[in-house]
């Protein structure tokens, strides 16, 4: 919306969200919206907040409350350190508010600020001089106009604190919110050093802090979320996410801060060492433990001549729910031999779904929950129920933000034997390049030793509008996916949104029965994640299926597994050799 006339008055309304905004009355336009070559810049004067800096329609600071943000983002890392910082690097921060606060620390010998947009420096210096008070005159301060992501690569091991004072991850700051950049930040720190990045409003930008957390976690030894609230950044709690080089740096941060603050010889208006160490422990705890969920996939030999009917399989579902302590949601969905060429049953549970499918003498089972799963109980119940001696199992972490190597390590392939509840040696799947999977030479379909297989996909960073609506996801499952793969559907896609137990996994679920299999998917609108399981007995073009699905949901990254299912004859090792895991980058 930007500037809007309301009667005689001029108002400004922020353009960050499409469904919520805030605004204020403007007394004077100081710098009309100007394209700097990087972004659109505007400076307004208001009675209420003093002068306000706006970039690309988003409020960056107001003279009235800039102290809250700048104090927290500068003093939290500086006071948390084991020993006083000497060299501080600021990425972004062209208005110099962060530099001003950093320079109050007398121990700091050098502050380097890398700002990509010279006009931000010049125009704020000219029109908001109170923000950069004293910075340009301080001989310890050095300004580099350039791309922070580039400059930082030449700074290996040189900085005690790196403050990333960027705009949101849209526009010029986009390259500052990714794994490669965070790795170069880690490399630029000294041992025991800390970085901190603004990561958005916790409630209005629910994916931002968790997303940055996951990425920082990949390179850094410990991660903390720091929280404050101000007027300028609409939406209540606002987050800064910090990472340390070296373990345990944050454990003593409160003690360090109390001591260093006393010694520092200056007072702050907003920052306090007393509330600085774990300012938001519950949110922190959630991030430390969260992955979307986990799944146990089982192939179980049925006794000769056994072909369980609908009622019996429904009974399996009920018992499994009891065993894994999950409430069933609604009635099971069932397809029998008249519809397909096997029997398929899907039962939604409060946190996802469990399902059964029979291929000849094999029961192919999946138990998927987006909460902790009592894996052993699920296996034992199923093996007992079908009066079988053993189960061949794949245990998959789902929607995990770990890197692909770790996901491979956390994927376990093993055999469970009823006698003495023994498990076999545990194997891992083969980690391969997606180019290999998509090439003609890929051996999976030739060598898997079974007719059936399963494609499991976790697709990250999808577009909210695409995954939040039941009709849209049902259309993918019932129309688009069959088109991409040539798979034939049975009946209609069932797409309820039964409100998963936890907020982070809330979103619709879909079951589409297929001729010879099923396609089951769940959508987390909070994490912009979708998880899919396709079990089927007909080959299809994997590249087309995966890439077009990513495109449909505008997903940026996918972790996929291929499992040979219903495999009777082969040794476990061979099954593991024919199980693949791979990552796919969006185009
Ligand atoms: N940089 C952080 C602005 C964040 C605005 N985003 C938001 N409201 N979600 C501010 C620069 C101040 N030096």
CATH superfamily heading of the largest domain: S-adenosylmethionine decarboxylase
CATH architectural grouping of the largest domain: 4-Layer Sandwich
Radius of gyration based on Cα positions: 27 Å
Helix content: 25-40%
* Overall form: elongated
The secondary structure category is alpha+beta
Let me know the average pLDDT: 91
Find the CATH topology of the largest domain.
S-adenosylmethionine decarboxylase
Bound molecules: 1-{4-[(3-aminopropyl)amino]butyl}guanidine
- Portion in beta strands: 25-35%
Give an account of the 3D structure.
The protein has 587 residues and is of the alpha+beta class. It has 3 domains: 61 residues, Spermidine synthase, tetramerisation domain (Spermidine Synthase, Chain: A, domain 2); 222 residues, Vaccinia Virus protein VP39 (Rossmann fold, 3-Layer(aba) Sandwich), CATH 3.40.50; 293 residues, S-adenosylmethionine decarboxylase, CATH 3.60.90. The protein has 17 helices and 29 strands. It has an 8-stranded antiparallel sheet. The two termini are 31 Å apart. The model has no long low-confidence stretch (mean pLDDT 91). 1-{4-[(3-aminopropyl)amino]butyl}guanidine binds next to strand 7, helix 2 and strand 12.
């Amino acid at each position: 919306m930007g500037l809007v006339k309301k009667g005689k008055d001029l108002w400004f309304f922020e353009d960050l969200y499409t469904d919520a905004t805030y605004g204020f009355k403007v007394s004077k336009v100081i710098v009309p919206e100007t394209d700097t070559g990087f972004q659109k810049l505007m400076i307004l004067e208001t009675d209420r907040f003093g002068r306000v800096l706006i970039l690309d329609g988003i409020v960056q600071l107001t003279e009235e409350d800039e102290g809250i943000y700048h104090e927290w983002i500068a003093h939290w890392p500086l006071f948390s350190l084991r020993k006083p910082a000497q060299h501080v690097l600021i990425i972004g921060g062209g208005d110099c508010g962060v530099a001003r606060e950093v320079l109050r620390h007398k121990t700091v010998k050098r502050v380097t600020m890398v700002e990509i947009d010279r006009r931000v420096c010049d125009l704020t210096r000219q029109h908001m001089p109170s923000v950069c008070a004293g910075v340009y005159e301080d001989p310890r301060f050095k300004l580099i106009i350039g791309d922070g992501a580039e400059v930082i690569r030449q700074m290996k091991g040189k900085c005690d604190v790196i403050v990333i004072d960027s705009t949101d991850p849209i526009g010029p700051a986009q390259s500052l919110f990714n794994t490669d950049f965070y790795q170069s930040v880690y490399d630029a720190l000294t041992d025991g050093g800390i970085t901190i990045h603004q990561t958005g409003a916790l409630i209005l930008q629910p994916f931002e802090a968790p997303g940055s957390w996951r990425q920082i976690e990949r390179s850094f030894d410990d991660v903390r979320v720091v929280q404050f609230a101000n007027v300028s950044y609409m939406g209540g709690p606002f987050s800064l996410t910090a990472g340390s080089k070296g373990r345990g740096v944050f454990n003593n941060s409160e003690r360090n801060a109390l001591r260093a603050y006393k010694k520092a010889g200056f007072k702050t208006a907003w920052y306090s060492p007393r509330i600085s160490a774990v300012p938001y422990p519950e949110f922190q705890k959630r991030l430390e433990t969260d992955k979307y969920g986990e799944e146990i996939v089982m192939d179980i030999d049925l006794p000769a001549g056994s072909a369980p009917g609908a009622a019996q399989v429904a009974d399996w579902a009920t018992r499994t729910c009891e065993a894994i302590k999950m409430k069933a949601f609604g009635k099971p969905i069932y397809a029998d031999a008249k519809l397909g060429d096997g029997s398929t049953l899907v039962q939604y549970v409060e946190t996802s779904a469990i399902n059964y499918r029979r291929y000849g003498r094999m029961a192919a089972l999946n138990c998927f929950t987006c909460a902790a799963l009592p894996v052993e109980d699920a296996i034992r119940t199923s093996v007992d129920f079908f009066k079988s001696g053993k189960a061949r199992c794949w245990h998959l972490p789902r929607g995990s933000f770990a890197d692909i190597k770790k996901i491979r390590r956390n994927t376990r392939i093993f055999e469970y034997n009823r006698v003495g509840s023994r498990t076999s040696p545990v194997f891992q799947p083969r980690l391969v390049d997606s180019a290999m999977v998509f090439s003609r030479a890929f051996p999976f379909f030739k060598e898997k030793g079974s007719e059936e297989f399963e494609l499991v996909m976790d697709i990250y960073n999808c577009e909210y509008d695409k995954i939040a609506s039941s009709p849209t996801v049902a259309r993918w499952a019932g129309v688009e996916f069959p088109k991409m793969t040539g798979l034939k559907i049975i009946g209609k896609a069932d797409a309820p949104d039964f409100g998963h137990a936890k907020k982070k996994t809330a979103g619709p679920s879909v079951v589409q029965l297929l001729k010879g299999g099923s396609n089951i998917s769940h959508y987390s609108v909070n994490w912009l994640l979708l998880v899919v399981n396709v079990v089927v007995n007909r080959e299809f073009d994997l590249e087309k299926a995966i890439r077009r699905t990513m495109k449909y949901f505008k997903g940026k990254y996918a972790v996929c597994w291929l499992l040979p299912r219903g495999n009777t004859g082969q040794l476990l090792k061979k099954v593991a050799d024919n199980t693949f895991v791979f990552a796919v980058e969006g185009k």
